[in-house]
Amino acid sequence: MMVGVGVALAVGLGLYTYDFSETEEEEEEESPLQREAQLPDEHETWNMAITTETEHEITFVETTEQDYVDRIHDVTYTYEIDTDPVSNFDVTKRTVDNGDQFLFTTLENKSDEDLEVSVTVPIADTSYYSLQSFSQYKTGPRISEDIKADLTTSPLGLVTTYKGDEFHSNLMVGKKYQSKDITKTYENGQKSKLRKLLSENQDLDIDVKLDGMTLQMDMDSDGKDIIDHWLLYSDERLFSSNESYQDWIRKYNVKKYKNNNWYTAKGPYKKVVRTAEPTPESELQYGRNLLIVREDEVLKRYKETEERYHYDLLLNSVANLEIFKGDKAFWETEYTNGWLNRVYDMKAPYVDTRHNEGVALFLEETGEILGIPEIKDALTNYADLLVNQMETGQVIEVGDDAYLISDYFKYGEDAPITHSSLNHVIGGMNLLLETYNSTGNEKYLDTAKKIQNGINELGEQWLTDEGDTWYQINPDHTFQGEDYTNLTLTDMLKAVELWKKIDASQTDTLEMLIESKANYLNRNDITLSPEAKELLR
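Now predict its structure.
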């Protein structure tokens, strides 16, 4: 029996309660429904305790390990809870090459019964801590016409622990997400993979005693649901200063739609477009979207600050992209777009050319900055895909040696030719030109010229009566759709820059389209993006 000073923090409604009274530590009686498990000790890891409040046994099943680009090492511990049917509990420790560790925990309750699983993580030699909330700047839910409402928010915050007066460790702690798998299986066996968000909860218990502290995550399930939680631990400061951390929170909130909060060991989940199917009655459908599995905003921030936190998130993104791709040649969208399905009978999985372009550019730049040659090949690999798409006829032909690559297609399968949107077309052409510049291989330039020929062949047909550019051309050569305000303009400006270094004779049509679109935006008082303004100078 010991007498000590306890500090308890309950985070539920954003209220922090500290209890500094001296308390007598008593032995806790184990509940007759309580079952305990420990992580296997053959791997160096936290001495984590796992308890379940259930009459069912929890049994360790296996340990699996996986490396990604020689920088990231995953160890996953799998447990079974003998419900009917059997439920799963996974703990994944993802170690980055600087020693920092992500901890992902997922409870998948396949039964109708309630389950209470608690994960307790001890941090030794810590005498006190501080918590800097991530939600100190209130922003509210993210709402747009495309996605409707995204009810998820941000990570819980940054925990700093101390040993005496000295810094001990940092933890970025996420929130708890409860969801339901609503995957739809079609008659041909294809699947559209989505989840329905049930709740986001910031419950976390932190208990500090004289010899250390513990974090307890209670993963309470209501039956037939999935509970996810994540945190990142480091023996070093994740941010070089409080100002840097505060600045990241502000930037995160400004572009919340491009930043992640719901991380899992298999990648982040984010609110997807309202046309994604299946759509639950709540319209709270979330999925692994390639737009956010790659961490573009994190990459920008790392280039500015080289903060440890963003380095960790970049490598986590590299691992997630490899996990997402699996044994496929390219990255396939894993949920169905209802509009694509109605018009072209195209169900998930399928290849989205713009998403693959974005992933390739992200990996190429990340590989260059972090010195990871293995992932720099993504750019060339995707350029090869575009060449192959041209050779196999996944294009809209608009003239002699004049083609536009379709936005979507099924890799290695017969599928209808879909429309070609101007931003997809020019984005792919730009990637081919960049690949030609880096490799000198003429096949990339030849394919880029055929695409530019297609743009030139249509010329002013790309323009609406108002002077804006159409969004897309259909296989029957009709045009439709309101175009992006800045994205396509930026793509065209980049294309002009690239062509001027290779063959300036190719820029006439692009410059005509740029002038018309820029004048249209100006007449309608539509603000240009900073990137577009810079390129227009």
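The domain at 377-536 is CATH 1.50.10.10 (Glycosyltransferase).
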